[in-house]
TrEMBL record:
Function: Catalyzes the reversible adenylation of nicotinate mononucleotide (NaMN) to nicotinic acid adenine dinucleotide (NaAD).
CDD domains, per database record: NMNAT
UniProt keyword annotation of Disulfide bond present: no
Spans traversing the lipid bilayer: none
Enzyme class: transferase
Pathway in which the depicted protein is active: Cofactor biosynthesis; NAD(+) biosynthesis; deamido-NAD(+) from nicotinate D-ribonucleotide: step 1/1
GO process terms (BP): NAD+ biosynthetic process
One Pfam family recorded for the sequence: CTP_transf_like
Protein name: Probable nicotinate-nucleotide adenylyltransferase
Organism: Eisenbergiella massiliensis
GO MF assignments: ATP binding; nicotinate-nucleotide adenylyltransferase activity
Gene3D superfamilies reported in the protein's UniProt record: HUPs (3.40.50.620)
Residue ranges constituting the Cytidyltransferase-like domain according to the UniProt record: 23-191
Amino acid sequence: MNTGKDQESHSLEGEKRHRRVGIMGGTFNPVHMGHLLLAENAYSMFSLDEILFIPSGCSYMKDQTEILDGATRLHMTRLSIADNPHFSLSSMEIDRGGYTYTCQTLEQLGEENPETDYYFILGADSLFQMESWKDPEIIFQKAVILAAVREGRDIKELLEKAGQLKDKFKAEIHLVPIGNIDISSSDIRRRVREERSIRYLVHESVREFIEKNNLYRDLTVPASQENRHE
């Protein structure tokens, strides 16, 4: 015979919530403190259980000639997140080969972890581009969107676009304020080429790795080609 306490225990077990995992994707060429601050902010604001960093493989939206190989970018990301217990790393996009598509990544994660809810973190301006991504309906179906908004950005315009996407794709989208974090991978690479300091722009272990291995010394790419949250 079950007591009321036993029944209550079974009920609580049945109502156990799914794990909530944030996805931080990008070229990470290199990963920098802006990525880490954004991930930590999303983690605390939305009571996430984990932030999963997924360095991109071969992005169909970027010129590959300026991007370091996947193994090197993966290693720098590993160095950056090693001291944070709720940050983790996946090589799935690098391992997959071929072009990287967000929809495929989310489908794979959903199949492998059906009891996990995913929160896809991106720069807010990407909201204006997502409809041109491969199978955007799958992205909105498989993940809650957390759009990072820099201080000074026109919130009204972003809210209007988020509303359009919600109506069109039945999406769940949240705007996440991140203050005035003005760090980009392109600027870091430029600083390296100009032999300027990148201390405090990247994790110290990444700075040491870049300097030790003479990374980014010979890359030349116009800033106009790059994404702020690459």
